[in-house]
Amino acid sequence: MADGEFLPGKSPLVDRYGRQITYLRLSVTDRCDLRCTYCMSERMSFLPRAELLTLEELDRVATAFVSRGVRKIRITGGEPLVRKDIGSLFHSLGRLVGQGLDELTLTTNGTLLAEHVDGLLQAGVRRVNVSLDALDPEKFSQITRRGDVSKVLNGIEAALSAGLNVKINTVALKHQNASDIAGMVEWAHAKGMDMTLIEVMPLGDTGEDRMDQYIPLPMVRDVLETRWTLSDETDAQPGAGPSRYTRVRETGGRLGFITPLTNNFCAGCNRVRVTCTGRIYMCLGQDDHIDLRAALREAPDPDLALDAALNRAMFAKPEKHDFEIKRRGDVPRLPRHMSTTGG
Ligand code: SAM
Ligand code: SF4
User: Is the beta carbon of 197 within 6 A of some atom in ligand 1?
Assistant: First the structure.
């Protein structure tokens, strides 16, 4: 499709509960250079490359969603920046920004961010979420089972210096980082970055006991409130999705809480996820999915088949998730890892 040719005009994606889907999380790989203890197991087997959608197919899927009213796309994974030639996907999706798409963004572990900053900016990316669970090199390396925090910090500095808006995502882990969270909030806010805390979700077998990792965020908030004043941001928080934001009076920064376990915000859900193999998961916490790869590779008219698949997905989107934290050894009800579905 040539520049400027695109205009959304088809019927919007609305599910059976009246929720309009305007946000797509598109996973471009299941691979990653880290092995975070809550996300992957030590020994992961990854998909054969032939099973992945090509960059052209990923572009076609994204374009189909935008033509049905999706206004925000987040590229994710696995680690999106380890996918070969990922810069060219950002470049091609950049043509949709302002042509139906309000925002093109990504979630990254930051290890390769420094070398991608210029390309991302040129593609129209203005904000990026960087996942970071510890500032201390030793703790970071334990949580990620291998990572070097200095690479992530360099990536963050490069992004900030180039003018990208960076938000830090931190999974709260009972024994590994809960006592460091206040220090991380201070660090992020001092650099003008928002921060969001996330509860561990029971996705996939990681070889770790989730009960040893899970800490309810209301408990973390109580501790933070012994030193700071947190005021809930009561406005509609457009685009905030499941995150509930507060303003920390003493630092002046924003702090979000994603609490899928302690609170359920499914009623306002505006998103779906597409995996790197082309499956639409209508809910992160349910296993129903619809295959887009067959539509792309086998249908006589792929664009028509994609549209039909999107309609089926809207009919099948469940009302809500039903996460439950279980111990190591219990079979996870959802065998998929977060890195498969795309966080
Ligand atoms: N590799 C990139 C990164 O880490 O930002 C993108 C993919 S990662 C799966 C997306 C987000 O999911 C990260 O913020 C990560 O911390 C979070 N995540 C992974 N597994 C999770 C789990 N079991 N519960 C809660 N969050 C999880
Ligand atoms: Fe990789 Fe992101 Fe999963 Fe960590 S959370 S293992 S960085 S995909």
Answer: no
Q: Which ligand is nearest to the CA of 140?
A: 2
Distance of CA 226 to the CA centre of its chain: 30
pLDDT of residue 4: 39
pLDDT in tens, 202-229: 877 888 887 789 999 999 999 999 999 9
Q: Mean pLDDT over all residues of the chain?
A: 89
pLDDT the model gives residue 237: 53
Pocket of ligand 1 contains residue 108 by CB under 6 Å: yes
- Cβ of 144 closer than 6 Å to ligand 1, yes or no, is no
Atom nearest to 338 CA in ligand 2 = 3
pTM over cut 0.85: yes
Count the Cβ atoms, other than its own, within 10 Å of residue 85: 8
Q: Is the CB of 39 under 6 A from ligand 1?
A: yes
Read off the pLDDT band of 3 (50, 70, 90).
very low
Residues 6+ positions from 293 with CB-CB distance below 8 Å: 53, 57, 277, 278, 279
Binned at pLDDT 50, 70 and 90, residue 315 comes out as confident
pLDDT in tens, 87-115: 999 999 999 999 999 999 999 999 999 99
Output the six-digit token pair for 99.
């042509």
At position 274, the amino acid (one-letter code) is V
- CB-based contact 218:191 (threshold 8 Å): no
Which fold would CATH assign to domain 23-341?
Answer: TIM Barrel (3.20.20)
Tokens encoding 167: 């938000």
Contact call for residues 88 and 40 (beta carbons, < 8 A):
no
What is the DSSP annotation of 113-155?
HHHHHHHHHHTT--EEEEE-S-SSHHHHHHHHSS--HHHHHHH
Instruction: Give me the residues paired with residue 247 across strands.
Output: 231, 254
Q: How far is CA 192 from CA 65, 120, 186, 251, in A?
A: 33, 20, 10, 10
- Selection from 277, 246, 250 nearest residue 259 by Cα: 246
